[in-house]
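Dear colleagues,

I hope this message finds you well. In preparation for our joint manuscript, I am sending the Claudin (Tricholaema leucomelas) sequence together with its predicted structure, so that both groups work from identical material. I would be grateful if you could confirm receipt.
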Amino acid sequence: MASASLQFFAFILALFGAFGDITATLLPNWKVNADVGSNIITAITQMQGLWMDCTWYSTGMFSCTLKYSVLSLPIYIQAARTTMVLSCILSAFGICITTVGMKCTKLGGDTDSKSHACFAGGVCFILAGIFGLVPTSWYTREIISNFLDQAIPESSKHEPGGAVYTGFISAGFLLIAGVIFCTSCFKKQQGAWIYPSKQHHFPSAEQESNAGYNLQDYV
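The corresponding structure tokens are as follows:
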């Protein structure tokens, strides 16, 4: 019962991680630059994401421009696009597989099949967490290095936006969920290897009596 509750908790974490992963991929605020200028009434907030760049004016206007050309983007943005999409796909696969493999569900067949499905789903979550952690770390590194570069003007410097923090948290949720699923199945299999079922075959009383009778005939 404790293992089933732990798997359910890991499944909830994986759901939050998957939704956060998709949200972080689509949000346009991976890096933010707030340019107040001399008049706070005309303040402008520029946001850049993986798929679009947006500008928000303090007057209430909001405009976005899609990034159609992939080859014109920096390499870290191209890598972030690919890895974040892979992370979303793997997390979706992990949710489908673990739904079959969890102990609290009636899907997946026998115990061994459910255990294998649970382990496969945990591996998908771990890979999804790694694919989500790599682009957010790389993206943050590029933002910090550009911010500390003295050759770049202040108006062109940015800070990490909410999408980066969402990606970090989602990757952590997916990693924790994957580790829980894999360890719960591994402990069960390890217990089966350490304590195998012992079957002792003792001769029946009838066989012993027959053996004694045959020996008496030879005397």
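For the figure legend, we might mention the following. The mean pLDDT is 81. Residues 85 and 173 are 17 Å apart (CA to CA).

With kind regards,
E.M.
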